[in-house]
Design goal:
- The protein has seven helices and nine strands, in the order βαβββαβαβαβααββα.
- By secondary structure, it is an alpha/beta fold.
- 23% of the residues are buried.
- Bound molecules: ligand JCK.
- The site of ligand JCK has 17 residues, from strand 5.
Amino acid sequence: MRIDVVTIFPGYFDALELSLMGKARDRGLIDLNVHDLRDSALDKHRTVDDTPTGGGAGMVMTPEPWGHALDGILAGEDAADPLIIFPSPAGDVFTQAMARELAHESHLVFGCGRYEGIDQRVFDEYAERGRVRLVSIGDYVLNGGEVASIAMIEAIGRLLPGVVGNPDSLVEESHESGLLEYPSYTKPAEWRERRVPDILLSGNHAAIDKWRHEQSVERTRRVRPDLLDD
Ligand code: JCK
């Protein structure tokens, strides 16, 4: 999968070089390209924002640098191939189901806004020329699209075949209980007078599976009853 990111803060994406994504990249599974939007600015001050037309607080990202940056990334691409994702508080909410869909894409482009957001005509232009989605990672306010893009890239990246070290963990997930995870334990069997539940030391795998399922259901009922509604 090819991933392009357009941002005024390329340094945020250094986090993706670490661990999981670094491996995926080394193995040629993810081709991540981070572009500094300011390199597409027209003036010597590399300006990317201006006052909101019609008035109001804050600044809005101007369309010209976005047009230049995105045209460069999309040059020579079939318009149907890349999917441009703009993280936005006004977007569809990102879910595991959406991550699974996006993991089938061959080329994702993340456009990271800042300030009060991006001039509407940028979305309109690229939606007319190809595929565009506005996506939110949840109902809280961030300062820009970078952290949202990193969360989405990590969630999508770990679903690509060969990315996660232990494929069993994805097989388990793919059973898709829709439940929260059961509590996990490792060695030692006793720590600060806290024992690992006896059942997990019993060697009875049917009983362990049943116990874990019950723990998942109980935890979901307590913390996220909305997940049990369907
Ligand atoms: C992209 C700029 C900052 C902050 C105005 C929004 C009522 C507009 C996001 N889950 C998420 N939360 N925030 C973002 C996100 C924030 C962004 C940008 C994504 C670009 N900002 C900003 C406040 C507003 N308010 C609610 C008015 C922009 C995602 N994904």
